[in-house]
Amino acid sequence: MSEQVIAFIGGGNMARSLIGGLIIDGHPPAALRVAEPDTERRERLAEEFGVQVFEENATAARGADAVILAVKPAMISAVARDLSQQIQAQGSLVISVAAGIRSRSLAEWLGGDVAIVRAMPNTPALVRTGSTALFANAAVAPEQHELAETTMRAVGIIVWLTQEDQMDAVTALSGSGPAYFFYTMEAMQSAGQALGLDAKTARLLTLETALGAARMALESSEEPAELRRRVTSPGGTTAAAIDEFDQANLLAIYARALEAAAKRAHALGDELEETE
Ligand SMILES: NC(=O)c1ccc[n+]([C@@H]2O[C@H](COP(=O)([O-])OP(=O)(O)OC[C@H]3O[C@@H](n4cnc5c(N)ncnc54)[C@H](OP(=O)(O)O)[C@@H]3O)[C@@H](O)[C@H]2O)c1
């Protein structure tokens, strides 16, 4: 991997995951910088990863090829405004992982024609199995596309979006998606216990089944619907369960749930835009 300098503004969970992933991918720790106001957190990052740490955002961002905004969405406008002159002068790429913040808002706070990639990762990024959607504004150069891609790939898979408004669908699908699977696990575990299994056994069987099914689906060229059909013999045990799901109209429930999440993502985006 190249030795481009990447500066993180905010050294919390998401920054820590990206830093860990980038180092495993071979990015030199000396080319990674972090600005973090909390002294203890800052020192821990330096000790654990050997990255350069700073108290001031502007010092961390100085000369960086990419500046990753990894603070909470409510802090982004203030952070972006403070760095705007420096980023424009340097021509750095700005990558924002803040949920809901639109690239046009960022461009406004950064004060002009700045190269911006908006990223929407999800929490499995914390264990390097994230799914991240990326959107680049028109100012992003090809080598900056590549830098954004290799950076976010350090914590999982990435997909590029051609239209930013697809971010609401992404938020509904993969952003909130881990919670839907946790909910399913919760339901299966408690149903297993209701059938007489102890909690530990029900939990292990549920989690390993989830992992096994995900691996099979990823490794197979078949659609999940076909994989399901193959393990559902007419009149068998799986068919008995699927009949119950169908009677409750599970597919329609999922469609409604994701629609609600996408609507909420859009409304939150509006709110974040309006507060400024
Ligand atoms: N965690 C995820 O899985 C995930 C998934 C998708 C998107 N994201 C996005 O990633 C961003 C970061 O999330 P996170 O979970 O990493 O949050 P986090 O753990 O709270 O990290 C944010 C860090 O930034 C620091 N900070 C606050 N104000 C700052 C400032 N003005 N300048 C520099 N640093 C500042 C915070 O310090 P203090 O605690 O002292 O304020 C904290 O250490 C959010 O915008 C979130 O929407 C996260």
From TrEMBL:
Please name the PROSITE patterns in this protein's record: P5CR
Output the superkingdom of the source species: Bacteria
Residues annotated as domain Pyrroline-5-carboxylate reductase dimerisation: 164-267
Reaction catalysis annotation: L-proline + NADP(+) = (S)-1-pyrroline-5-carboxylate + NADPH + 2 H(+); L-proline + NAD(+) = (S)-1-pyrroline-5-carboxylate + NADH + 2 H(+)
This entry carries the following GO cellular component terms, namely: cytoplasm
Gene Ontology terms describing biological process:
L-proline biosynthetic process
Q: What does this protein do?
A: Catalyzes the reduction of 1-pyrroline-5-carboxylate (PCA) to L-proline.
What name does the UniProt record give this protein? Pyrroline-5-carboxylate reductase
The protein's gene is named: proC
